[in-house]
């Protein structure tokens, strides 16, 4: 014997539930994996000529999502988007000595000799890091998924060193 079909008044409710679940899922994907929805740092050209950009995207957990733009003149613009202590934009300046240290980090990593992409998925659920560096007329962007074990150690060290030199821990983790 076949069970009775649900009444007509329950069917629209079930459909609404499916739509709201789809909307919730899309919101989660947008927050946790901005690379899937649409990436890109606001270049903020009024802050001066670009020196570097560091952008960290989400993961399958609570990984910090933020970007930092450093101008050639030392102006720094940060935007925390999710899973950070400081949401929104913050600005500060670096000294000429600090800017020279940042340039030295890219030189030590031989940044322009690295590949443009490290996107192999040896491990799932990890965040991605995008770096952009400009030296003179030359500019390069590297898209690095942290689950790609083929990425050179120099790139990982550079990404971590940039966070240390830019003192992002206070913005990401809090005081």
**Structural class of the secondary elements?**
alpha+beta
Q: N-to-C terminal Cα separation, in Å? A: 66 Å
CATH class reads Alpha Beta
Which regions have little confidence, pLDDT < 50, spanning 5+ residues? 10-39
Q: What integer is the average pLDDT?
A: 83
Query: In this structure, how is the largest beta sheet organized?
Result: 7 strands, mixed
Shape: globular
In total, the number of strands is 7
Query: What portion of residues is helical?
Result: 25-40%
Question: How much of the residues is beta strand, in percent?
Answer: 25-35%
Name of the CATH superfamily: Mago nashi
- Rg calc: 21 Å
Order of helices and strands: HHEEEEHEEEHH
Main sheet: which strands, in order across? 4-3-2-1-6-7-5
- SS field, number of helical segments: 5
Count of spatially separate domains: 1
What is the CATH topology? Mago nashi protein
CATH architecture: 2-Layer Sandwich
Protein traits:
175 residues, Mago nashi protein, 7-stranded mixed sheet, 7 strands
């Amino acid at each position: 014997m076949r069970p009775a079909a649900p009444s007509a008044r329950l069917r629209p409710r079930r459909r609404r539930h499916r739509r709201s679940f789809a909307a919730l899922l899309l919101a989660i994907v947008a927050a946790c994996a901005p690379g899937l929805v649409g990436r890109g740092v606001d270049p903020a050209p009024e802050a001066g000529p670009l020196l570097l950009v560091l952008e960290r995207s989400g993961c399958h957990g609570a990984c910090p999502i933020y970007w930092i733009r450093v101008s050639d003149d030392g102006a720094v613009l940060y935007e925390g988007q999710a899973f950070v202590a400081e949401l929104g934009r913050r600005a500060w300046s670096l000294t000429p000595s600090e800017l020279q240290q940042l340039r030295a980090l890219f030189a030590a990593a031989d940044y322009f000799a690295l590949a443009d992409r490290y996107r192999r998925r040896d491990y799932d659920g990890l965040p991605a890091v995008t770096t952009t560096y400009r030296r003179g007329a030359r500019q390069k962007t590297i898209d690095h998924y942290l689950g790609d074990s083929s990425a050179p150690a120099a790139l990982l060290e550079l990404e971590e060193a940039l966070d240390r030199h830019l003192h992002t821990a206070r913005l990401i983790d809090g005081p």
